[in-house]
Structure formats: structure tokens, C-alpha cells
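Encoded backbone
================
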Amino acid sequence: MTRFPSLDALRTFVLAATYLNVSRTAEEMCLTQSAVSRQLKQLEAQLDVQLFHRTNRGLALTDSGQKYLSQVQKPLQQIQRATAELLPRVSTLSLFVDGAFAHTWLVKRLPQFRAQHPDIELELKLGASMHSLTGSQLGASGAVQIIFGSPPWRGFQAHPLLRMEEFPVCSPALLAGDVPLKTPADLPNHTLIHEGDRRTWRRWLAAGDALPYESTKATTAHDSLTCLTMAIDGQGIAIGDPLTCADYLAAGVLVAPFGQRVVLTDTFCLVVAEAQRSSPSAQVFCQWLQGHFPPLR
């Protein structure tokens, strides 16, 4: 009974016959050089035919080896093509995402997307946290972008995801401390956490006629995620929003001590370049993401 070589042995032979170099063949197959040499010798012993001449410079095919290569190379390629066509095709979708949106909301929910759409592989690139972008700053960073700003942007289709509001957030420990935080009049007893400058806090204070209560105690960070982390740690009161604070508020590690909110014109937007609108994977991701947010009125 004829014993047929394994596909691994034939693949090793074809690569070695192509490169005529054991080291390069081993690198291609992620094997050691000794493992490749052993496979080639076992194949020759099984066929009882010498396929290679071993020289100081590498390998050289014998006449039998050259004939065998011409006969097995195309069938192996056909097997590879047939297998690739049989397996589910995986498409790669590049995303450019605001850093705050990614860390506080998107990353936690990506396993759900992957479970529903295993044929789409996501490539995630992060931008600055809640840095408002103008139309001239939008580029080809990703087929789909989730950015902070105020549409429209020429050449892009933009869908605002939510009504953006600002409001103070803090650790629940501050509500029952030595100087409990109950009303804006208690703010001077606490540290205000500013993001970049004092404009965000002053906008909220002005909206609530509470400017006289601006605390002189302040800490400044230049990233919204850092501000929220400090607030969770009980280091002061930060300005939050309904998206980046959603999971923290639900978990009870942050609370919103006051009812006053300020509505912003900028918000998180799902943005797709006009040239990418027909991409099936982009359409699937956009539908999935928008399904998590109620339609804006």
C-alpha cells in the first residue's frame, strides 16, 4: 500500500525547494532548522528518493526533486485557495476614537460586538480625550471615527450620539464627610478639579448663579479621564457628562450632588467619510453603535 506524505511534509518540501535554504524555510514555518532538516530527510526516506543535494551554500534540487516540485506545487496552492474560500472571510475595520469615549464606554462593550460579528476585526486608534475637532482637523485616521465636536463637517456624514450636558460629580464620601457637600454654597469647603483651565467650572457656576461659591482650592489636570479618576478617589469635585460618567454613576463610585446641568453644543459624534459609507463593515458597526443610543429629538 502506497504511503502518502503528510501535507506538512509537502509544504516543507515546497518551501525548501523554493528558497533552497533551510534557515529561511525554518523561519517561514516557525520551526527550528533541525526540525526542517529532519522533515526533509524523513520525506526522502518515505519516498526512497533523494530530493536535494546538500552543499556548503545550501540546498540544490536533484532531477527527481525538480520533477516532484513541478507536480505537487500547484495542487498544494489549490488546496490553500480552496480552504481560504471555505473559511469565513474576516474584514478589518479601522476606528479612530476619542480617548475618553474609548476608555469609559466603548472598550467595555467591544466583546459584545465581537461576539455578534466575529467576521469583522477592529483596529482601534485613540485620539485626545474630549478635544473638540473642527472640520479641517478631520482626516483619514479611520474608516469610522467617534469624535467630540459640533457637526456638520464637509465631506463627512456625522451623527450626534447624545445630548451632551455638564454637571459636577464627586465621590459619595464627600456627601457625608467632615464638611458635607449638600448645596453649591458648600463648594468653597472643597477642591474643584479643573480640566485644562477654569472655563468649564465657571460655565456651570454661572448657569446656576453660583459664581460667588467658586472655591479657591483647585487642582488642574489636562485630561478628562484623569479628572474623573481624581474625583472617584475623593480628591475633589470634577465636571462630568452623561457618557463618560455613565458607568461610574451606575456603579455608585461617582454621584451627581446637584441637579443643575449645562447643555453643550459639542457632543460625541459618529463620523463616516462619504467614501466609506458603502463599506459593509462600517455600516454594521455604525448600526451596532447607534443601537446603544436613543434617537435625538
